[in-house]
Amino acid sequence: MPKTKQFIMLIVTVLLVTIGLNLTAANQVQAATTPDDTLAQIKKKGVLVMGTSPNYPPYEFQANVNGKQTIVGMDIEIGKQIAKDLGVKLEIKPLSFSSLLVSLETGKVDMILSGLSPTPERAKSVDFTNVYYTESQSIIINRNDAATLKNKASFAGKPVGAETGTLQYDLIKKQMPGAKLVGMGSAADLIMALKTHKVDGVVKGTASATAYATSDPSLATINGDFTTDQTQAGNAIAVAKGADSLKTALNQSITKIQKRHLIQRQYLKTAGKYLKSDDKSTSMVSYWQFFAKGIEYTLGMSIVGIVFGAILGILVAAMRISKTKLLKWIAIIYTEFLRDTPLMAQVLFIYFGLGALLNIPALLAGIIAISVNTSAYISEIVRGGVQGVSDGQYEAAKSLGIKNTDMYRFIIFPQALKSIWPSLGNQFITLIKDTSIVSIIGVTELIYQMGIVQAETYRGVAPIAVTILLYFIIIFTLSRILRHVEKRIH
């Protein structure tokens, strides 16, 4: 039995990998053989979808504008100008930096405008426009360390951080061989690591580094003195492979922006207006709306996920205890595969993998992934509870001529519920915490909102403390409710 199960799981994995490779190959063939109508399609729908990772001031970041959280920055102003030139509306889709390229490849966004350097590695997957902005690289340090950390050679044997997958990450790896490279997923996490002395320096583009140092008197910047070619040192807009018509239109807008010097004269000044921290409160109370929105999404996804997860889980459990071998094996494959693969990978597959065939919004993709993943665990909980009911209950019901459906509905399941209720409660609590994973595709749940507050206030620890407290309040309250229900059903 175990060997057969492992063999089936291997077959399922091979099939999924094959499907993924075929989808990629099909997309490449289609891009190579289909006439490019990308620009025409964008104009037809009247919307230009821009993918960005809004935690990189002054390029793109979240700010509280008139009581409403808004994505602002230099790149956002460029995106607005491009949309205006094309005669369409601009739709900004926030994503984690690591998800940007795959979102473009799967058609979730039309372009990536997010301080992206056109490296040769990235150019294998996407096409780049002309460079629209060029800057040097700086190292952010704690101001108290300025006497000892004066250049990149000063970091020998010391931890230095950068965002994973960025040009700065590669620069540390290649040009600071004596430093200990630390990669993290967001700029806010890096700055917090610097201020808490987990790293001694953070490498960022000079504009972004200056923005952080200007807004936080405890930080300073030094010249990184990195060697970069003109292309890699600059930022460009990424479009899908073969989207030549869109790339040509974007290059025309870039040329106009550069001729008018709009970035230096206007866009950076607009971004700087939101970065000034002397006239805004960094108290966590001032950002209650951000946390409230995060709670709304977290609880909403959790409730929907547990409801649909329970329905699907009961159905799978029924299949698992069925006498029909086909249904039983389908249920086994379903539960084993979902429990043996990470939820994060499932979220990414549903949003980007299935998203290549169906236009699934990020929130819906997150709910589907959470519901399906939860159902696999609930099915096993329910199956264990049902099979734990004594055989005498089944025999008594049959001797009385009670139908199977009525037997399970009125006799077996109510008894099983008493024994599985604590496990179901634990699963619900786990589900609430697991919703944080969907922040990777841009769903604005509690962890995502915490990152926004970190970037907005330049405070690393306080937003984390508030988030932990909110999770504790939610889960502690839920635990008390579940315990009360448990006492009532016994």
From TrEMBL:
Signal peptide as annotated in the record: 1-31
Membrane topology: Multi-pass membrane protein
CDD domains: TM_PBP2
Matches recorded under SMART domains: PBPb
Keyword flag Transit peptide: no
Residue ranges occupied by any ABC transmembrane type-1 domain in the UniProt entry: 295-479
Pfam families given in the database record: BPD_transp_1 (PF00528), SBP_bac_3 (PF00497)
Gene Ontology, cellular component aspect: ATP-binding cassette (ABC) transporter complex
Subcellular location: Cell membrane
Molecular function, one GO term: transmembrane transporter activity
Protein keywords: Amino-acid transport, Cell membrane, Membrane, Signal, Transmembrane, Transmembrane helix, Transport
GO terms classed as biological process: amino acid transport
Transmembrane intervals: 297-318, 348-370, 460-482
Family: Belongs to the binding-protein-dependent transport system permease family. HisMQ subfamily.
Protein name as it appears in the record: Glutamine ABC transporter, substrate binding and permease protein
